[in-house]
Write a structure and sequence with these properties.
- This protein has about 130 residues and is an alpha+beta fold.
- It has four helices and three strands.
- Strands 1-3-2 form a three-stranded antiparallel beta sheet.
- It is flat.
Length: about 130
C-alpha cells in the first residue's frame, strides 16, 4: 500500500470513530424495493423509525429494522451511553446496488430470457440532535 493511500485510509478510520453506523452487504432484495422502505425512515427519530419498520408488511422492512437495531447498539458501545427519547435520529440511509446473479429462463423456439436477481448494500448512519 502506498503512502498516500495509507494516509487516506487512516483519515477515513478516524472519521468513522465519531460516526454511528451499520452496514448490510449483499442483501438479496432488489435495491428499488429497499429504497422504498428506506425512504420511510430517513430523518426520523430512532424509536419512531423502529415502529414504522416493525409494522410494515414488506420483506425489506424486517432487514432494515435489524440493521437499525445494530446501529443503535453500535452507538451505545461507542458513546458509552444509553439511547434516550428524542436524542438519536436516522441521519442517512444509502442503498447501493450489489452483485447481480444472472440466470437463464428457457423460452419457446430455442430462445432464452435473462433473469437478473439483484442484491444491494445498505448503509445506515445515526446522529444525535445536539
Amino acid at each position: 500500500m502506498g503512502k498516500r493511500k495509507r494516509l487516506v485510509a487512516e483519515q477515513r478510520k478516524e472519521e468513522n470513530k465519531s460516526k454511528y453506523f451499520a452496514k448490510l452487504n449483499n442483501c438479496p432484495t432488489s435495491p428499488r424495493k429497499m429504497r422504498q422502505v428506506a425512504d420511510l425512515v430517513r430523518g426520523l427519530d430512532v424509536y419512531q423509525a423502529l415502529n414504522i419498520l416493525k409494522f410494515n408488511t414488506r420483506e425489506a422492512s424486517g432487514r432494515l429494522e435489524k440493521l437499525l437495531k445494530s446501529a443503535i447498539a453500535n452507538y451505545e458501545t461507542k458513546a458509552n451511553a444509553k439511547v434516550e427519547e428524542n436524542t438519536l435520529f436516522v441521519k442517512e440511509v444509502t442503498v447501493d446496488s450489489a452483485l447481480m446473479a444472472k440466470r437463464l429462463r428457457t423460452a419457446p423456439q430455442g430462445r432464452g430470457y435473462r433473469i437478473r436477481k439483484r442484491s444491494n448494500h445498505v448503509t445506515l448512519i445515526l446522529d444525535t440532535k445536539n
